[in-house]
Structures are given as C-alpha cells and as structure tokens.
Amino acid sequence: MAELDKECLFCKIIQGTVPSYTVFENDDVKAFLDLSQVNPGHTLMVPKKHIINLLDYTPEDARRYLQYLPAIANAIKEFDTNITGMNITTNNGASANQVVMHSHVHFIPRFEGDGLKLATRNNAEKYTSADYEKIATKIKEQF
User: Fold this and answer.
1) What is the pLDDT at residue 119?
2) Residue 92: count of CB within 10 angstroms of its CB
3) Active-site residue, selected from the candidate residues 50, 102, 104, 106
4) How confident is the model at residue 120, as a pLDDT?
5) Rounded to an integer, what distance in angstroms lies between the CA atom of residue 17 and that of residue 32?
6) Model pTM above 0.85
7) Consecutive sets of 10 residues in the chain, 143 residues long: mean pLDDT of each?
8) Alpha-carbon torsion 138, 91, 113, 122, what sign?
9) What is the C-alpha separation between 98 and 102, in angstroms, rounded?
10) Residue 24 contacts residue 72 (beta carbons within 8 Å)
11) Is the domain defined by 9-140 classed in CATH 3.30.540.10?
12) Domain assignments of the chain as residue spans, ordered by start
C-alpha cells in the first residue's frame, strides 16, 4: 500500500498488521471502532494515505476522503435507534489533543442524558466589534 508510514499506528491498522473492528472500508478510507468507546458506536475514519491532520489536506485529499462522512455518520446513527445526535470532530495537532499523528475523524454517537460534555468556553465578553473585525480581516487575508 502506497503512502503509508511504517511506524504509524493507523497505517498499521490500514495494512492489517494491527487488528481493528472495521465498520467500513474501501480504497480511500477505513472506519473502525475507537477502543475508548466514549459512547457505543464511537468510530474513527482514517484516509488510506498517511496525512498528519486536516491542516495538511490538499483540496484533492478533502474531496477524496471527506466525502464519506455523511454515509459513515448515518450508518452509525442507524445502528441504534436511541442515538439522538452525533459529534463529528477532528483534533489537529498536539495542542488540540491529537494523539495519533495520522488524520482521523471521530464519530461520537450521542444519547439523551448521556452526560458527555465536550468542553468549550464563551469569551464573547472579551471582544469588541473592532476585535472581531481585526480577526476576520486577518483570516480573510490568508485566502
């Protein structure tokens, strides 16, 4: 298999040298259960190309690999009628809690009253309209 890293855990899973509980696989991606099972059905989808994280995707990589997100999410949702929502997340870089340095998307099924809290914070009181304009302008300039 081309474009894989012999030291990467997810590349080993793609190659089959490390076992996984696969739920979907084709020539582009592999989706398998996350062993942590934050909630039942917690699944990871990885591209079958060693890409560190989403920030390293080319437009072609995005078209090729991310097209499977809805199908995988819907298959997970359909496996249990008690699923009422889903967090679909990706951690990009160590400071964002990325542990395995191979791009992967988490599908975390949600259930009413599951008690899972994904931490965010609201810092709106720290920003003025001018601050928002400055940040937005700087980001726009990067395109």
Assistant:
1) 84
2) 14
3) 104
4) 86
5) 14
6) yes
7) 86 97 98 97 98 97 98 98 97 97 98 92 95 96 95
8) negative
9) 9
10) yes
11) no
12) 9-140
* Distance in angstroms (rounded) separating the CA atoms of residues 53 and 105: 10
Q: Which two tokens stand for residue 71?
A: 């199908």
Residue 112 CA to residue 84 CA, distance in Å, equals 6
| Residue 18 tokens, joined | 């490390």
Distance, CA of 66 to CA of 10 (rounded, Å): 17
The reported pLDDT for the residue numbered 2 is: 57
The CA distances from residue 10 to 38, 69, 92, 103, 126, in Å, are 19, 18, 15, 9, 40
Q: What are the DSSP calls for 47-116, one per residue?
A: ESS--S-GGG--HHHHHHHHTTHHHHHHHHHHH-TTEEEEEEE---SGGGT--SSS--EEEEEEETT---
**What is the DSSP code string of 114-138?**
----------GGG--HHHHHHHHHH
Reply yes or no on whether 50 is catalytic: no
